Amino acid sequence: MTTPDGAPRRRRISTKRVTLADVARAADVSAQTVSRAMRNHPDISDETRRHVQETVRRIGYVPNLMASNLASNVSRLVATIVPSISTSVFADTVSAASRVLEPAGYQMILGVTEYSSVHEEHLIEKLLGRRPDGILMVGTKHTAAASRMLRAAGVPVVETWGWTKRPVGSLVGYANDDAMHALAQEVLSAGYRNPVFIGSASDGDERARARHAGFTRAMREAFPEREPRFVDTEGRSLTLQSGDEMLTRARERHPDADVAMFATDILACGAVLGAARRGLRIPEDIAITGFGDFELATAMDPALSTVTIRSDRIGTESAEILLAQMRSETTGTQKVDLGYEVVLRGTT
Questions:
Q1: What are the residue boundaries of the HTH lacI-type domain, all occurrences included (predicted)?
Q2: What is the count of structural domains for the chain?
């Protein structure tokens, strides 16, 4: 077929969805009975409920949750903001939170900042537009605009993976600077005298900046006359290859360095693998430490010295706090310090 001007007429693709009325006709019951059966209303018999449920499955009906949400002012959504999904520890946190929230009827919608505070601000704006019932986020430092939006959202907020005196809402985490300070002290106690810290100085990676601060504090306490050694990753992605490259750069800039202390296990593991390819002995030629105790850490040969963070427990505790607040079972904010553990293994 063509239009009056001779152009081909586009065929309209049907987008008709199966409705609650369709279920009612197929089940030979009223629409009200279908609605009540799907809400497990006590007036509906078990036999009728099973019949309606079987009909729903047979014809492929999916309830319109948006309409239900508008009526109840409850979305059953939890906005979840993480810096990366390629890092196992953040995935562990999200997975643990999901195991608490999903059985309670809440779904997580995920946003990834890629370590950009500006992108985080845009994500917060867009996710709040979906009217989530709660917000779970990695990080405690935000732009001024992002902080204002979070405080004005009127829903529970839980920040994680850090520590601050002024959280936006509740807080579940630990002090990154204290953790790296403790690791540096252990390294110095083991006899190393020329550590170099390798990590990001980017505003978007607040955890790496805090760990650098903890390293710097430990070095200035031990060697007040020396400037602490630091090599900036300069925006490199957190990959094994980047870790290999950064170890090479650190040794070029600081040839007397006897231990490379990375801001994260991913980079540290890449350095361990790269060192082995180059014939470097670990820890005899260069010792290496990481942070996070990722799954790869214990798979290295030798196993990686690092700081253990209970990423799964961060997710569980955060989700439980959110759930209680979304259900109005608790009021006020909570602060839960989960701490950390320094673990020295074969790379030192």
A1: 18-72
A2: 3
Q: Which domain holds residue 138?
A: 75-174+311-338
User: CATH number of the domain that 43 lies in?
Assistant: 1.10.260.40
Integer CA distances (angstroms), 278 to 29, 197, 275, in order:
74, 21, 5
Question: What are the residues whose beta carbons fall under 8 Å from the beta carbon of 9, sequence distance 6 or more?
Answer: 1, 2, 3
- Using CA atoms in the order 232, 137, 97, 300, what is the torsion angle rounded to 10 degrees? 0
The label of the residue with tokens 């105790």 reads: 293
14-33: string of b/e by CB count within 10 Å (b at 16+)?
eeeeeebebbbebbebeeeb
Q: How far apart are CA 89 and CA 310, in angstroms?
A: 9
Residue 69 located in a structural domain: no
Q: What is the mean pLDDT of the chain?
A: 91
Same domain as 44, residue 140 = no
Q: Is residue 14 part of a domain?
A: yes
Q: What is the pLDDT of residues 167-207, one digit of tens each?
A: 999 999 999 999 999 999 999 999 999 999 999 887 778 99
Quick one: angle between helices 176-189 and 206-222, nearest 10? 40
pLDDT at 70 over 50: yes
299 and 184, same domain (yes or no): yes
The verdict on 112 and 215 lying in the same domain is no
CA 322/CA 167 separation, integer angstroms:
15
User: pLDDT for 22-52, tens place per residue?
Assistant: 989 999 999 999 988 987 888 899 999 999 9
Helices (H), the chain: 20-27, 31-38, 46-59, 65-72, 88-101, 117-128, 144-152, 176-189, 206-222, 240-253, 265-277, 311-326
For residues 107 and 84, the answer to whether their CB atoms sit within 8 Å is no
Give residues with Cβ within 8 angstroms of 133, minimum separation 6: 74, 75, 76, 77, 78, 106, 155, 156, 326
pLDDT tens string 50-65: 999 999 888 888 876 6
Residue 228 CA to residue 219 CA, distance in Å, equals 6
